[in-house]
Amino acid sequence: MNKPVSPDELITDEDGPLYAPRKKVYPQSVSGRFRSIKWRLMAVCLGVYYLLPFVRWNRGLGAPDQAVLIDFPNRRFYFFFIELWPQEIYYFTGLLVLAALALFLMNALGGRIWCGYLCPQTVWTDLFYAVERLVEGDRRAQIKADAGPMTAKRAGRRVLKHAIWLMIAWWTGGAWVLYFADAPTLVRDLATFQAPAIAYVWIAILTASTYLLAGYMREQVCVYMCPWPRIQAALTDEWALNVTYKYDRGEPRCSVKKAFDIRALGEKAGDCIDCNQCVAVCPTGIDIRDGAQLGCIQCGLCIDACDAVMTKVSRRTGLIGYDNDINVQRRIAGKEEVFKSVRARTVVYAGLITVVCAVMLYALMSRTLLDVNVLHDRNPIAVRLSDGATRNGYTLRFLNKRGFDRVIAIDIDGPAEAKLHVIGADSVTPDRPMIVLGRDATTELRVLVTAPFDEKAEKSVPVTFRITDIGLGEVASATDHFVLP
Amino acid sequence: MSDHNEIDHVSGRSTTGHEWDGIKELNTPLPRWWVLTFYATIVWAIGYWVVYPAWPLVSGYTTGLFQYSTRASVSTDLADLEKLRGEKMAVLGNASLADIEKDPALLALARARGKTVFADNCAPCHGSGGAGAKGFPNLNDDDWLWGGSLDQIMQTIQFGARSGHAKTHEGQMLAFGRDGVLKKDEIVTVANYVRSLSGLSTAPKFDAAAGKKLFTENCTSCHGDNGKGNPELGAPNLTDQIWLYGSDEETLVETITNGRAGVMPAWVGRLDPVTVKALAVYVHSLGGGK
């Protein structure tokens, strides 16, 4: 047997453990152009998320007046002037296609704009970091406190931090459920503990997920869980603007004083003074100077940090900035920088977005608010009557998507001299049955079509049910078959 | 387990000291969370034994503190269902059959109830859609042995046909051949005559006058002078296109020789009155109701 050896001695770069433990990130506060853009976008995103359920939209009597509402019990989705039924779920497919294309376009123009500014994971994590810094102090204070012993003061701050986090998380979950019921009523019911149990359950679930994802998982979601960084790397090209450390200008790194000396000798010294501020402010704890990498969400905070330092040492800002590989190479070669936002990739994405938008808009504008579906009886498919006539039974389902009742007439176009009879709806006009369709609802009726005996009749002929709104003249139809026994 | 506290070179973790062909097994104890969960399930199982029925005994079982039983649970659920249904079904019970058909909401309710009951009780003979089979009437057509009005349909469902119930429909097709009333050739003649009533082709040597005479003497008492049948006796209309057993000569000869007496059971007492009502409305609304 081998002599026992201390594990530390054995771990080398070649065969260390496969598991990399997480290094806690303490992003330092920073201010600047991109920080203020992020604050503003955060305010807009959270504002929309928290307040949208309270926006009202008048749809007339009997219909919900909430602008955005997912009404599961009644199977309706309301979005301002749009009301969708479950059958129209394809609009959501269209929205998903649009979302994907918009993501691709953003990526082709400015890299991971979504990750850095708009992704909920980023927005909430940013908010949680802000709370953490407010309560426990900035980067240095936190590192120092974590290295030291747990004191009463520190414990108190920690409790306060988690309390604020939980409050934000709770309010996040709370806003979520408001999209599924009348918001003001639900808020009142929640406060008086009258709300349905499922509302509390969902609030609890989303409170937990927000708290865990923004408070604990943080950058690990982006690095380990999210598929987008992987896909993004495959979709980007050399023209896309990404947050880049301009190594052509920054290297070799040296202090201001040393750079002064080197430059006095007429040799090249980089502008990077190796102050590590870009690393200190990074919410994912990476070093942007290592180049484009999976962990970089391209939030631009390192740009703010670097610009501040460059200003202090009286050098040009923009050592880190939105840039691309082409320009780095061009600068090294002594050429002008070029930025090409209009190129095949972006044009194709923009074109596709326009096409999908147009298709969806057309589909939305031309969708019918009156519809009929037909289902032929399966058993028996045909009935022979005592006088030799043939009868087929059908179930008709009418969809009235308007907010008012309407009267429709049913006509058929099928076998010769066929008669239509509606079960349970004695019409004043027996030859052309008329029935009332309730507003914003489906109506199901059983109808019988009877054709007299005809020796030459075909085994199966198409039969079309045509419904006409007596008032508005809207028409819809459905076709099935009339078969002989 | 070995006492060796040997450390593996690659992973930096201790080994169990077991070695095969130079490969050493790492000491990988079960994760703490797993072990704790496992212990928790044991505690849970013990709690379960205490409160729920668990152990079989010689003549019985431990009933547990909760006194839970699946049978009682089902009974409660069924009672709840009846209570829930009762409120709605009471409305059906109070409405007349005709009123149910006129009110779309009541009709939908009756049809829904009728459909499930039909599937459970009637479909074995009449088919899932009421299309019937040989000897079992099609309930979708307009030909009714015992009448097709709502009241008549309900009567038939309640008391059946030849079911043995005191109020059941009686009357049957006699076995003219087996009982020696008609001879074989007479049966063939009358069978051909019956076919001619509904315009079906007849045998080449068929004597229509003889057939009519035989029919008048033997059949009209039930099937009527012109063969139109009689719902009071369940005698089918012989002039239409619908045949319960079949219209070919062979089948008719068999019918006349041996008679027919299909049985429909009485459902009164087996189905509650409101259910029978719903069933009658459902069958009537299949399309053939009069």
TrEMBL record, chain A:
Keywords: 4Fe-4S, Electron transport, Iron, Iron-sulfur, Membrane, Metal-binding, Transmembrane, Transmembrane helix, Transport
GO molecular function: 4 iron, 4 sulfur cluster binding; metal ion binding
Coiled-coil stretches: none
4Fe-4S ferredoxin-type domain boundaries: 262-291
InterPro entries to which the protein is assigned, alphabetical: 4Fe4S_Fe-S-bd, 4Fe4S_Fe_S_CS, Cyt_c_oxidase_cbb3_FixG, Electron_Trans/Redox, FixG_C, Ig-like_fold
TM annotation in the entry: 89-109, 163-181, 193-214, 347-365
GO cellular component: plasma membrane
Name of the protein described by the UniProt record: Cytochrome c oxidase accessory protein CcoG
Native source organism of the sequence: Bradyrhizobium uaiense
Gene from which the chain derives: ccoG
Automatic annotation (TrEMBL), chain B:
Residues given in the record as heme c 1 binding sites: 122, 125-126, 264
Binding site for heme c 2: 173, 219, 222-223
Cofactor: heme c
Transmembrane segments: 33-51
Superkingdom field: Bacteria
GO cellular component, one term: plasma membrane
GO molecular function, one term: electron transfer activity
Gene3D superfamilies reported for this sequence: 6.10.280.130, Cytochrome c-like domain
Cofactor binding remark: Binds 2 heme C groups per subunit.
UniProt-listed GO biological process terms: oxidative phosphorylation; proton transmembrane transport
Record's keyword terms, sorted: Cell inner membrane, Cell membrane, Electron transport, Heme, Hydrogen ion transport, Ion transport, Iron, Membrane, Metal-binding, Oxidoreductase, Repeat, Respiratory chain, Transmembrane, Transmembrane helix, Transport
Listed pathway(s): Energy metabolism; oxidative phosphorylation
Function: C-type cytochrome. Part of the cbb3-type cytochrome c oxidase complex. FixP subunit is required for transferring electrons from donor cytochrome c via its heme groups to FixO subunit. From there, electrons are shuttled to the catalytic binuclear center of FixN subunit where oxygen reduction takes place. The complex also functions as a proton pump.
Family listed: Belongs to the CcoP / FixP family.
NCBIfam families: ccoP
Protein name: Cbb3-type cytochrome c oxidase subunit
Native species: Bradyrhizobium uaiense
